[in-house]
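User: Some background: our group keeps a shared notebook of sequences we're curious about, and every so often someone picks one and asks for a predicted structure to add to the entry. Today it's my turn. The entry only has the sequence so far, pasted here. Could you supply the structure so I can complete it?
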Amino acid sequence: MMNSETKSEVYEEWALAIFLVACFLLSFFKDVFPLLEKGLEAALFAAVFFILKQVRDLRVEVRGGRNRESFFESAQDFYTTAAESVRRGKREIRATYFRDAPPGEAVGDACERYFEDIVEFARTRRRTVRRIISVNNKEMVEWCRAQADLDNSIPSYYVRVLDTGAGAVEPMSMVIIDDETIYLAFSGHTHEQLGGVRPRGEKLAQFLRQRFDSHWAVSIPAREFLASERCVALLQESASAH
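Assistant: Of course. Here's the predicted structure to add to the notebook entry:
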């Protein structure tokens, strides 16, 4: 689903293409049909108008600081903005979730919509989602089961579990959309507290993509984790604690 800004940009690009084609055809036939010369002038004016508008938009974008990072102080702001980027995605999402509690209502409706949008992204043809999670308690085991069910039912949705205590790679909660758009999430003192940042820069993007792939290489499929001794031990620890 495209937002209004994206739709406007698409319409402008199509309009510019149409006027440029019209300029070519009119210039080709104006010698045969002199009356077309006035139409050529109008088409050239319209094409120049759209070109100048795109140049202005680019200048505004650069001056507006879109190359700087964006900071989100609340979970609501973070998940709302991240969900918008997910809906604009086209190819692949890499996502990690390294928290001690599953996404819940306490974080807000924006969180629920964000996770739903990622699942819908995977349901769309030729799109892939790879998600890595950590599981350290009974609640996360249950969420892992739900994620494994999605893995089973959606061909392009993959979930793996990383043992964050193994020391292989330092965990970092993030989402990478189409190799370019990146969000990093940071937890607060409670499960409800969460903020984040959207960093910019190709070198950082490359580093985080490599970090994700390192996580992926040492993690195991969710179904395999649910059948593991580690999962059984977590459930037994929870039962004995009660």
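Suggested note for the entry: Strands lie at 70-72, 92-97, 128-133, 157-161, 174-177, 181-187, 194-198, 220-221. The longest helix spans residues 36-63.
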